[in-house]
Design a protein that fits this description.
Beta-Lactamase; 9 strands; Arc Repressor Mutant, subunit A; globular; alpha+beta; three-stranded antiparallel sheet; 9 helices
Length: 251
């Protein structure tokens, strides 16, 4: 288990900011001695996951197999794309699909608004789940024990002055989201940005993702969003869930 943890740590040391690393840099970043880091790096080179130019190491496209296996197994982005595209065309706003990773939400699909100026969040971007509508919809889908395990004693960091940072307030909001079936976030990620999200459930009723719409907070009031936008998003998610059931052989 320890060797697996070290190998994963080495792979995660490479990022957009550090696409190329030397042996010393990998050892320092991962807290390994040079001999251990060298063994792992050479093994990953031999397996084809890393490239070595004689001095620096870098990831190869083969590492994408892990992400592709995850996404293709669930087929969520592929299934959701046409439905979110249709919704984006209708509401003329950006739509997205996200999954929960620990206490963060990761964007796995985004369909930009047909308008020239629109919200752009690249696929793969992560945000603290408590600060965005997608994340709140996903957190609300956890059972109390799992929610407590994930949150632990972590501080809820503010991204803006509107971000909910009080644990009791967050838990109360999640209870409301479970009851109403959607999450609404006003300026918690960015001032002037409103997000609304609905959980996506698999055939067993488990929340596996969430879909959302990003809106200019000044374009529609919160009550208008509830009355007009939420029903459209709920219907869109229903179509995504129907496709999930068909893919699983359960119409």
């Amino acid at each position: 288990m320890r060797s697996v943890e070290r190998t994963v740590a080495v792979l995660r040391a490479f990022s957009a900011r550090s696409p190329e690393l030397t042996l010393t840099e990998v050892a320092t970043t991962c807290g390994l001695d040079r001999a251990s880091a060298r063994r792992i790096l050479l093994s990953l080179v031999e397996l084809g996951y890393l490239h070595h130019d004689g001095r620096q190491y870098s990831l190869t496209p083969k590492v994408l197999e892990f992400g592709y296996a995850y996404l293709s197994n669930r087929s969520l982005p592929q299934l959701a794309r046409p439905h979110l595209h249709q919704l984006s065309e209708t509401v003329r706003e950006t739509t997205a699909l996200g999954v929960l990773e620990g206490v963060d939400v990761r964007y796995v699909l985004q369909v930009p608004s047909p308008r020239l100026l629109s919200v752009t969040i690249p696929v793969g971007t992560r945000f603290p789940a408590h600060a965005v509508s997608l994340g709140k919809a996903l957190l609300a889908g956890l059972n109390p024990e799992e929610l407590q395990r994930r949150l632990g004693d972590r501080a809820l960091s503010p991204l803006t002055r509107h971000t909910v940072t009080d644990r009791a307030a967050l838990l109360a909001e999640l209870a409301t989201i479970r009851r109403e079936g959607f999450a609404l976030s006003d300026g918690e990620l960015e001032e002037g940005l409103r997000g609304v999200a609905v959980p996506v459930r698999d055939r067993d009723g488990q929340v596996v993702a969430a879909a959302n719409i990003s809106l200019d907070a000044h374009a529609l009031s919160a009550s208008d969003v509830r009355a007009t936008v939420v029903p459209m998003l709920v219907r869109t998610v229903g179509r995504i869930e129907a496709d999930l059931r068909l893919r699983a052989g359960h119409p």
